[in-house]
Specification:
The complex is a heterodimer of chains A (235) and B (415). By secondary structure, chain A is α/β, with parallel strands linked by helices. Chain A has seven helices and twelve strands. Chain A has helices at 22-33, 64-76, 79-85, 95-100, 195-198, 200-211, 221-234; strands spanning 6-11, 39-44, 56-59, 89-93, 103-105, 111-113, 120-137, 146-158, 166-170, 178-179, 181-183, 186-189. Chain A starts with 5 loop residues before the first strand and ends with a helix. Chain B has 415 residues and is α/β, with parallel strands linked by helices. In chain B, 37% of the residues lie in helices and 18% in strands. Chain B has helices spanning 10-28, 37-45, 49-54, 68-79, 95-104, 120-127, 148-161, 174-180, 254-270, 274-281, 309-321, 363-372, 383-388, 401-414, and strands spanning 58-63, 85-87, 110-114, 131-134, 166-170, 186-190, 209-212, 215-218, 230-233, 236-238, 244-246, 293-296, 299-305, 326-329, 356-359, 377-379, 393-399. The longest helix of chain B has 19 residues, at 10-28. The model of chain B has no long low-confidence stretch (mean pLDDT 88). The interface between A and B is medium-sized, with 37 and 32 residues.
Chain lengths: 235, 415
């Protein structure tokens, strides 16, 4: 393995792989490989220590039980937390946004400690948010609309250290108004789809952060067509 | 064992008659196949209809995420060696479908019922089955059906409450094993198939599950792979006394061999001799249009149904065996589940180098997945047009639920 290979840690796909978020790692890998940047996916399985040497960490969504086990595992093996202090790039989806925060409270009113990577708290909302989402990126983080599919009961409140990822136009997101969180190089979102196949601008932003260079344009007609279709379907 | 079904109370009999009338009316008016509406009306008029209609019959209930319809048909064929069998076809697998099927054959002493996982507790409770067959449990339409672990727990509770039922269960599936583990009378079947992605952690205690070869055990509690009585071998089965029986199925794929071994074990528990059961289920070739081949303009297209990541992964192994072009058809209607994230859990990379067309209402979502899987493809949303654009000869068509249903209906109308 050469020093210049960008390593993408796929964190606990056996627990947090319920919603196809594995696709986010594939998209990062392919978008780098196709541009001549060496990249590889490093799966980190349940029961194994978490390395702190990867460049990008991708964490997906999962069922409630799996999420509790995942956060327990990630607190016992704090490689991801160490990597964050070394400026690693992190994408957390759905369960990710909840376990990265200070705490999350379930529908049974039991509060679980989070990993404390994001200034946020999450709690169970009254109803499950299911459906297509459209949102405008906050702080001009990237171009174009953010599109995805949400399926969650959690609601998330951001503290002053965290910025929203986007402002909701259609759907629920964190609370009906903002969607996701950005803090340093950690990006969180409730959106599946998965999120990176549908939002290549966000994928390229993560790649730019990891490599230090803005990647060359990459035109994939099927992706453009999908973004147009999903925007029409949601609005 | 051959008691004829008990006489129906007046209320049930009237409810059944009205239900049957509305089934026929629904068919005549072209509203549907009449598989559910009759049962729905009968159940409204008599909520106990299912319990009353199964009373006095020998019942087998088939449940699981994938393979229900095929296994049910196989088991029904095998059990017909003993007498007339009432069974629900074409996936009408909720209580209204059961009531419709039972009403149509009031005198059949046997019933083989395909049952949606969510309805298993109610149906098993009402019908007191002699045999319950548990195929597999994996994620399926998460925005609609709910979490796999919730389903496992409800099946476990229901199974533990059953008296006198033989559970026929797949010991290569961690979720199924957990659901059946505490039952008094279990027949374990090694199917050689299992979707491991939903069972990294124990459904009982949460600790990691460790696999070594086909064996598995939980690292935290006593849940482990039970010793199987029946084993699926290459195109054959091995019975509890060690006899090897060739399967010789007309249906393709390892997963259909697994379905056949499960069905044989279940039929044996009902009282059918093994050779007789295998001989009968060998003849199954077309299950509600699945696996059937349609002819169009010099193309011979085989229709395959797959509804979820585990099903697609299995089906792709069948397609891979032959180097035929493939039309993949994806919809995301309510009955399919509206969230297509699962497309990324399917190893479409296996199709690299093959001629592929992405089709269906959500062809574009599939096209993006195929792009990142580096599978060259074109997009043709209409599946019949997609078949016509393939080179002449054999074509494999794989479709998810509503896509398959609509394609099958259009193909049947053309014939």
């Amino acid at each position: 393995m050469s020093e210049s290979t960008v390593q993408i840690a796929l964190v606990l796909p056996d627990l947090l792989g319920t919603y196809g978020d594995f696709g986010n790692a594939v998209v990062l890998e392919k978008r780098m490989t196709w541009r001549g940047i060496k990249a590889e996916i490093v799966p980190v399985m349940f029961g194994e220590p978490v390395p702190d040497s990867c460049d990008i960490y991708v964490v997906g969504g999962g069922e409630d039980t799996a999420q509790t086990l995942a956060v327990k595992h990630l607190r016992e093996h704090p490689g991801l937390q160490r990597a964050v202090t070394k400026n690693a790039v992190v994408l957390g989806v759905c369960a990710g946004i909840q376990i990265f925060g200070e705490s999350f409270t379930r529908a049974d009113n039991v509060t679980h400690p989070g990993m404390g990577l994001i200034d946020s708290t999450s709690h169970a909302g009254g109803s499950r948010a299911i459906g297509e989402v459209l949102a405008t990126p906050a702080n001009n983080l990237f171009e174009g609309v953010l599109t995805g599919f949400e399926n969650h009961q959690g609601r998330t409140v951001l503290g002053p250290a965290a910025q929203p990822l986007a402002h909701v136009k259609v759907g629920t997101g964190n609370d009906g108004s903002v969607e996701g969180a950005v803090q340093g190089r950690i990006v969180c979102t409730y959106l599946h789809g998965p999120v990176l196949p549908r939002n290549p601008q966000l994928a390229d932003l993560l790649i730019e952060w990891a490599t230090g260079t803005k990647p060359a344009p990459l035109d994939l007609p099927a992706v453009t067509r999908l973004r147009n279709e999903r925007q029409r379907a949601a609005s | 064992m051959n008691d004829s079904p008990a006489r129906l109370p007046l209320r049930t009999a009237a409810a059944v008659r009205l239900g049957n009338m509305s089934s026929k009316l629904s068919q005549k008016m072209g509203l549907g196949a009449g598989g559910m509406i009759g049962g729905r009306i009968a159940l409204k008029l008599d909520p106990q209809a299912l319990a009353r209609l199964t009373q006095g019959r020998t019942v087998a209930v088939v449940t699981g995420t994938n393979g229900k319809t095929t296994s049910t048909m196989m088991l029904a064929r095998a059990v017909s060696a003993l007498g007339e069998v009432a069974t629900n076809h074409s996936g009408a697998n909720m209580p209204d479908g059961h009531v419709t099927a039972l009403s149509k054959q009031p005198d059949a002493p046997y019933a083989v019922l395909e049952c949606d996982e969510g309805y298993f507790p109610a149906v098993a409770g009402a019908s007191g089955p002699k045999v319950a067959m548990l195929l597999n449990l994996s994620r399926d339409q998460l925005d609609r059906v709910g979490e796999v672990r919730t389903i496992e727990r409800s099946l476990r509770t229901a199974i533990n409450a059953l008296e006198g039922t033989t559970i026929v269960a797949n010991c290569d599936d961690v979720m199924v094993t957990s659901a059946a583990y505490d039952a008094k009378n279990v027949v374990w079947v090694a199917t050689g198939t299992g979707w491991h992605q939903d069972s990294a952690s124990c459904p009982r205690c949460g600790d990691p599950i460790r696999w070594s070869g086909e064996d598995w055990h939980c690292t935290g509690c006593d849940l482990k792979r039970p010793r199987p009585q029946w084993v699926t071998a290459d195109n054959a089965l091995i019975t509890p006394d060690g006899t090897k029986v060739e399967l010789g199925l007309r249906l393709p794929g390892k997963f259909n061999q697994a379905n056949a071994v499960m069905a044989t074990a279940a039929a044996h528990a009902v009282g059918v001799p093994v050779d007789e059961a295998v001989r009968r289920l060998r003849g199954v070739s077309n299950v509600s249009g699945r696996y059937r081949t349609i002819q169009r303009n010099g193309r011979s297209a085989r229709l395959l149904l797959s509804k979820n990541p585990a099903g697609w992964s299995e089906t792709l192994t069948v397609v891979r065996e032959a180097d035929h072009p493939a039309v993949l058809v994806i919809n995301a209607q309510e009955a399919d589940g509206r969230d297509l994230s699962w497309l990324w859990d399917v190893p479409f990379e296996k199709l690299q180098g093959r001629t592929v067309i992405a089709s269906g209402e959500r062809a574009t979502d599939l096209a993006v997945r195929l792009t990142y899987a580096e599978v060259e493809h074109t997009i043709v949303p209409d599946p019949l047009k997609a078949i016509d654009q393939m080179p002449q000869g054999d074509v494999e068509v794989i479709a998810n639920y509503t896509a398959f249903r609509d394609l099958n209906a259009r193909a049947a109308a053309d014939e």
